[in-house]
Amino acid sequence: MTWQSFFLDHWPYKLGAVFIVFLLWLDLTAGERQSQEVVTRLVIDVQDSAWVLLEAPDAVATTFQGRNRDLLALIGDEPEVRIGIPRVTGPVMRVALDPGQVAYDREMGVRATLVVPTSVELQLERLAERRVPVVPDLVTVPAMGFTVMRPLLVEPDSVTVRGGASQVEAIRQVVTRRVSLEDLQHAVMRDVPLEVAAGVRGIEIDPPSVLVTVPVDSLVVRQVRLPIRAAGAAAGRVRVQPDSVDVVVRGAAAAVRRQLDSISWATVQVEAVPSGPSLAPVTVELTTGGFVSASPRPEEVTVRPNGS
What we know:
This protein has 3 domains: 33-117, RNA Polymerase Alpha Subunit, Chain A, domain 2 (Beta Complex); 127-214, Beta Complex (RNA Polymerase Alpha Subunit, Chain A, domain 2), CATH 2.170.120; 219-305, RNA Polymerase Alpha Subunit, Chain A, domain 2. It has 5 helices and 24 strands. The protein has helices at residues 3-8, 11-29, 68-77, 165-170, 253-262, and strands at residues 33-46, 51-55, 59-67, 80-85, 92-96, 102-103, 111-116, 119-135, 138-142, 146-148, 153-155, 158-164, 174-176, 179-184, 188-195, 204-206, 209-214, 216-231, 238-241, 244-252, 266-269, 278-281, 292-297, 300-305. It is elongated, with a radius of gyration of 38 Å.
């Protein structure tokens, strides 16, 4: 008989026998008393409202004594050490730890005997707060024939940040969580959480989210005939040919309507009287921001001295 056949012949029965031996071993050792080190969560509760906690260990190690079965159950119970700080005496404090501070199910038949380390150092800072603006971080893609009008509307447009004085002083603005919106054909509103820069800890934002409105409008093209007005130092001593131009206005529908209601003429800037006919660019002054463009046709006209 080879060693392969020894292990492979009737292997289900042999595996079952090994499992039974393992169960018997567990039953025999479950009642033995042993010591077990368990990672224990450390919770620091700063009750002094003038201070905030900047840095402290997240966990310590607690040694428990008890029967094996109880120690195994304790690991799933997640014991913790909770320390209250009713009064802060300075920016650096050392707090003693002892087994009596460990919170766990004391009916489990185990006992905490040691906490390592026996003390921890806390870094604290005086509480400060300030009002900072909110910057929306939205990626917006309008559908064909539409445009997103900026700036986006944020309500409220500023929030209060609270935390350690040095951390708060370094915060100049708060950014929303990034949101992507595509194929937009109408205005969209989203309640978006706020975030501070990576690495900044212990900062509270009030309120924690803002309402962002993305204005969307259809794109339109309109044409209007406008008279040309000469401006500048020599405006009264020249004449312009032609005296009017077509202006093509493109942009968001509502903004184009407002623009057409507000513009009355195109302008040619003339600072000196030319000796003869010369070309000068035509400009159209827009008053409604970046949602509209206006293109005069032609882009240049002829400027002549009066009487020529």
